[in-house]
Amino acid sequence: MIQKSYIYYPSNDLEKLLFKFIWKIEIHHNTQKIEQILPKGTAELIFNLSEDVHYFTDDISKSKPVYKSFINGVNTKSHYLVKTGLQTFIGIQFHPCAIKYLFKIPANEFIDKIIDSFHVLRSTVEVYQLLRSDDNFQNQVKIIKKWLLKEVKFSSYQIERNKMFNLLNFNDPFLFSIKSICDRYNISDRQLRRISEEYIGLKPIDCITYRRYLHSLHEIHYKNDTLTQTAYVCGFYDQSHFIRVFKEFTGLSPKFYKKNKSKLIGHIFY
Known about the structure:
By secondary structure, the protein is of the alpha+beta class. It has 2 domains: 2-151, Jelly Rolls, CATH 2.60.120.10; 156-269, Homeodomain-like (Arc Repressor Mutant, subunit A), CATH 1.10.10. The chain is built from 11 helices and 9 strands. The protein has helices at residues 13-18, 98-103, 123-133, 137-151, 156-164, 178-185, 189-199, 204-222, 227-233, 239-250, 254-260, and strands at residues 2-8, 19-37, 43-48, 52-56, 64-65, 69-72, 79-94, 114-116, 267-269. A hairpin with a 7-residue loop joins strand 4 and strand 5 (64-65). The longest helix is centred in the last third of the chain and has 19 residues, at 204-222. It starts with a strand and ends with a strand.
């Protein structure tokens, strides 16, 4: 297996509001490989410059070809890639709300789905063609950034939404209670539910559970604490509750993930 990877992190406040990073990976498999991708609390737009890649959710016999450019919304369950030969992907890992800003479609339309971006936003066709014509990663980043700045305009309320629905913010206790979220942002339960489903695709209580799961994924991946310690740090009732929730999102036990994890958080290779 031969692999090259590149990454670009946001360089200004506007970029930081929109995406976590832009990435590129080039990898060659001599034999068929399966990659399991766990829910990671982000949404992505991915440009597929590969030879032969398929995906499936729970049955490899029902795998489908991956689109040339696709939107992968916030995932609440694992999905899998079946890869052979040379693969090249360029992706933008967005904060969840950015999907709504960019495509002007409620986020719940993208939950647990892989959707052809050419049919959603025609300008992605031109971006795809430009990326194919220039193999230099720095130039590819410039192409993507120029396109994003043209397509997305931020306002003050969007900045507020980003803070409210940042699933990877594990340190703000106000984000782990519906009442505290409503109090902080001066909105009603009904308003919170509406904007939660519109901007992230999940009900508020599900966002809170999801955030706890993501916190546990990071703890397991980067630390060597016991499961009991992880359950406590992440706000689960007990170890059994933690294991049950983790398995609901991933189909795996925390122990299995820890034993088989790759260098890239949320990715397992078979």
